[in-house]
Amino acid sequence: MDKKVKLTKAKTESSSEERAKKVKLARRKSKRFRKLKFKSGLFIAPSFLGVMTFFIVPFGVIIYYSMLDNPISANYVGFANFKSVASNEAFLTAVKNTAIFSAIAVPLAVVLSLILAMVLDLNIPGRTQFRTFFLSPMMVPVASIVLIWQVLFHNNGAVNDMIMKFGLNRIDWMKSKYSIVVIVVLFLWKNLGYNMILFMAALASIPKDILEVAKLESANPLQTFFYIKTRYLSSTILFVTIMSLISSFKIFREIYLLTTDYPYPTMYMLQHYMNNKFKKLDYQALSAGAIMMSLVMVVIIGLLFFIEERFGKDVEG
Amino acid sequence: MEENKNQVIVEPTPEEEIVPRAKRTVNQEQDNDLIALLQQGQKKRKKILSIEKIAKNDKKAARIRKIDNFIKIFLATVIAAFFAVLFLMPIVLTISNSFMASSEISSNYGTVFATNANGGKVYISEKVNLKFIPDMVSFSQYSTVLFKSPEYLMKFWNSVILVGPIVLFQLIVATLASYGFARYTGKVRGVIFFAYVILMLMPYQVTLVPNYLVSNWLNILDTYWAIWLPGIFSPFAVYLLTKFMKRIPNSMIEAAQIDGAGEWQIYRKICMPLCKGAICSAAILVFIDYWNMVEQPLILLADGEKHPLSVFLSKINSGEVGLAFAVATIYMVPTLLVFLYGEEYLVDGITYQGGVKG
Question: ipTM of the assembly?
Answer without folding.
Answer: 0.82
